[in-house]
């Protein structure tokens, strides 16, 4: 149970790093997707290391 107290700040740091990129992606008209963009969408940038900004 104590491990949850240690993991919680770690997840907050991950979310904080990606928050700025998400707003930039949405301003471009895109959506952040884990892994990669699927067929009808194309990558227009990155939200984080594993998330791509995709747009139709």
Automatic annotation (TrEMBL):
<dbReference type="Pfam" id="PF00711">
    <property type="entry name" value="Defensin_beta"/>
</dbReference>
<comment type="similarity">
    <text>Belongs to the beta-defensin family.</text>
</comment>
<dbReference type="GO" id="GO:0060326">
    <property type="term" value="P:cell chemotaxis"/>
</dbReference>
<dbReference type="GO" id="GO:0042056">
    <property type="term" value="F:chemoattractant activity"/>
</dbReference>
<dbReference type="GO" id="GO:0031731">
    <property type="term" value="F:CCR6 chemokine receptor binding"/>
</dbReference>
<feature type="signal peptide">
    <location>
        <begin position="1"/>
        <end position="20"/>
    </location>
</feature>
<keyword id="KW-0044">Antibiotic</keyword>
<dbReference type="InterPro" id="IPR001855">
    <property type="entry name" value="Defensin_beta-like"/>
</dbReference>
<dbReference type="GO" id="GO:0042742">
    <property type="term" value="P:defense response to bacterium"/>
</dbReference>
<protein>
    <recommendedName>
        <fullName>Beta-defensin-like domain-containing protein</fullName>
    </recommendedName>
</protein>
<dbReference type="GO" id="GO:0005615">
    <property type="term" value="C:extracellular space"/>
</dbReference>
<keyword id="KW-0964">Secreted</keyword>
<keyword id="KW-0929">Antimicrobial</keyword>
<feature type="domain" description="Beta-defensin-like">
    <location>
        <begin position="25"/>
        <end position="55"/>
    </location>
</feature>
<keyword id="KW-0211">Defensin</keyword>
<keyword id="KW-1015">Disulfide bond</keyword>
<keyword id="KW-0732">Signal</keyword>
């Amino acid at each position: 149970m104590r491990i949850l107290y240690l993991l919680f700040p770690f997840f907050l740091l991950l979310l904080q790093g990606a928050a700025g990129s998400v707003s930039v992606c949405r301003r471009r008209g895109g959506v952040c997707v884990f892994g990669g963009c699927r067929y009808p969408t194309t990558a227009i940038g990155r939200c984080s290391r594993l998330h791509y900004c995709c747009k139709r």
